[in-house]
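Re: the request from the purification team.
They wanted to know what the chain is likely to look like in 3D before they choose a buffer screen. I agreed to run a prediction and write the result into the notebook, where they can find it.
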Amino acid sequence: MGLLADGWAVAASFAQPAPVKGTVRPSVEIATIRLAGAGVHLLGTWPGEELALFEEDGLLQVTQPPFGRRLHIAPTPDGVWIADDDQWELRRFSAEGELSILVRSSASPAAVTDQLLEEFLTERYRYAVQDPTLEDLKQAQREIARHTTTPSLGMVLGMTDGGVAVGEFKLGAASPQAWITVDPNGIVTTIELPSGLDVKRWGPDWVLGVVRDALDREAIHRFRIVGTGPKG
């Protein structure tokens, strides 16, 4: 899944869900492996990406339900950052498997309303062919929707010099994106990024991302981060 410092790598083993109707989060086992020589450290087992299995036309279908929960794994030079977005909590493990940083937030996720669900479906099927079957797809999603709140985290991105950047969960890009960074020493900083920026890489004082215009043309932008400070 990625490389750490000093010749270590991160690996994950994903369990297969049972072929029965319902909602499930198959387990994910995460370990660090020394690339040269012997050395494996099991970090633990977490619930993975949430899946909904349902029957349609006599066949079992698999999809991610609206506002489904995910496991975020971010290998960085300072360790492996792991977060289950069912709650706002980040854990950093060393290559040797030791828990070295734990960050929690009391921030509450947004409530899922009927309007927010429709916005979610519009975003999910933005590029789908507009034909009669599209409404059937949306209705199937409405029927399996069960979460009353959004995920606590939107994105967890490892930074090039260690630490992670955590983006809030938000649909589309209509407003500025609020991010929180945690550096290798555990110092937390809040940062607001321009609207519409799809972040791809995060450096020590810069952010690289993609911006799409009204015609869906892409442009790569690099922004310098200035005036940051610890979160109060």
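For the purification team: Helices lie at 114-124, 132-144.
Please add any questions underneath this entry.
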